[in-house]
Amino acid sequence: MINKEEYRTRILLTASRIFSHYGFKKTTMEEISRALKKGKSSIYYYFGSKEEIFEAVVLYEANQLRTQLRAAMKEVDSPTDKLRNYIFVRMRAFEKLSNYYNAVFDKNLDHYEFIEKIRSKYDREELAILRLLVYLGNSRGIFDVKDSEYTAMAIQTMLKGMEVPLFWRRREIDINNRLNAILNLIFDGINKRP
Amino acid sequence: MINKEEYRTRILLTASRIFSHYGFKKTTMEEISRALKKGKSSIYYYFGSKEEIFEAVVLYEANQLRTQLRAAMKEVDSPTDKLRNYIFVRMRAFEKLSNYYNAVFDKNLDHYEFIEKIRSKYDREELAILRLLVYLGNSRGIFDVKDSEYTAMAIQTMLKGMEVPLFWRRREIDINNRLNAILNLIFDGINKRP
DNA sequence: GAAATTGTAGACCAATCGGGTCGGAAATTC
DNA sequence: GAATTTCCGACCCGATTGGTCTACAATTTC
Q1: Which residue's CA lies closest to nucleotide D20 at its C1' atom?
Q2: Could you read off the pLDDT of A90-119 as tens digits, one per residue?
Q3: How far apart are alpha carbons A19 and A15 in whole angstroms?
Q4: Angle at B96 between CA B95 and CA B99, to 5 degrees
Q5: Which CATH number fits domain B51-190: 1.10.357.10, 3.30.360.10, 1.10.10.10, 3.40.50.720?
Q6: The CATH number fitting domain A50-190, selected from 3.30.70.360, 1.10.10.10, 1.10.287.3510, 1.10.357.10
Q7: pTM of this prediction?
Q8: Best to test chain A binding among B20, B26, B28, B169 (most A CBs inside 10 Å)
Q9: Among candidate residues B87, B81, B56, the one with its CA nearest the CA of residue B69
């Protein structure tokens, strides 16, 4: 290992994989260390606690998501497509991350606060993006909304609404359908009628 | 609940879902009972132990697989397609069941024996099916093999070979490719050259 | 409607698990 | 070869968990 930071990242990536599958509680330090072919105590040389690893993972995943979203939006040009891509990538990501949430909401309210902090920061970012997209579409004459701010908030509310059944109940089939329905709703309510 | 057997099945189905996700060890009785909205001790009225539930689940899944395989083979007519369908369904099933195996191989060699018993019985069934398919294709003039028995065994060996990386390493991407490669290999080596 | 049976669950127990510590052994650096 | 960095086996101790037991609903039987 060349330096400490690099190894921290390696641990983080491994832990992330296991966390995302089993959730926080069911993932053991022994497991993480075994996957890294290291002794359990060695991990403690790089991270102070299991929670610390978890926080690092969440932070990492948040940045990861940010990058993905940026890429997905860059991929297309029209505000419609940008918004569509944004929503798809976002929901897919949350779907994948549902195990983290299961873990967090399990009992330990300690993490809850931490997650909420990241969450609220992320919410603000998201709102800004949505606002921009709505504004952009509006000024290009594709959308027709009075107030970008509140429309953006409304969209965000819908997205948040979709998270709940995603995390708390297990449906595999209709996620895509529901996503498309949401998208149709948004666009049919937002597109300028010809 | 009308009768005991029916409730046993309900428990079994619920447990199956949780086992398949978390594996034997990480699944707790409390979890199973909570999912059933029952007290933990109530479960022990229907099953003697966690292992007993696990065994019932494995048995159930084995029968499930049997049914699926039968259906997949009935779906098509030519021996080629039957064999192709058989292999696809089989490998997909094993992929899904990998968590059970992870659980079993974890440490507890107690289960190992039980699983091996089911396994060997299943292996014999599988061999019979493969033998029949090869024989069928042969007699229809589609295949051209000398010895159905040994050819069937060879195919089974290949299938078993595919299980290993499936369970022990985590690849998502190339499973399909490898499956197709295996199929091509089997058929190109088996089809009568025109 | 009493008695027996079937089903449920809370309190509890013993064993194991698992996060975390510590002292010191390897390995690496200087 | 001393100092520093990295690693780990052994241990600690509180939490978890499979399983038991008893009391007690609910239902069925008589």
Answers
A1: B41
A2: 888 877 676 666 555 454 444 556 666 777
A3: 6
A4: 95
A5: 1.10.357.10
A6: 1.10.357.10
A7: 0.77
A8: B26
A9: B87
